[in-house]
Design brief:
This protein is mainly beta and about 80 residues long. It contains one helix and seven strands, in the order ββββββαβ. The protein has one domain. The protein has one helix spanning about 60-65, and strands spanning about 5-10, 15-20, 20-30, 35-40, 45-50, 55-60, 70.
């Protein structure tokens, strides 16, 4: 389960946001850290919601897993 995990985006990728009632593409730059907050939902193209810079955006699950590297807390094993 990915909910609650954080990822560093290695390659810039697109996400979707709703701005003024319209769906807009947003580029998440390389080096950004996102946190998975929900998903994936059922469907052909699995989508998840992520938190980035205090914004909740929707991304393809495959973009997160292929273009991101999981951030592992070093204190988690202690």
């Amino acid at each position: 389960m990915l909910i609650g995990k954080r990822f560093t985006i290695v390659n810039a990728t697109l996400a979707l946001d709703v701005i003024d009632g319209k769906i807009r593409a947003v580029t998440i730059p390389a080096g950004a850290i996102i946190k998975v907050v929900s998903g994936p939902s059922d469907g052909v193209q699995q989508m998840i919601d992520v938190l980035w810079e205090s914004r909740t955006l929707t991304m393809f699950l495959i973009d997160v897993t292929r273009r991101g590297t999981e951030v592992v807390d070093q204190d988690a094993d202690a």
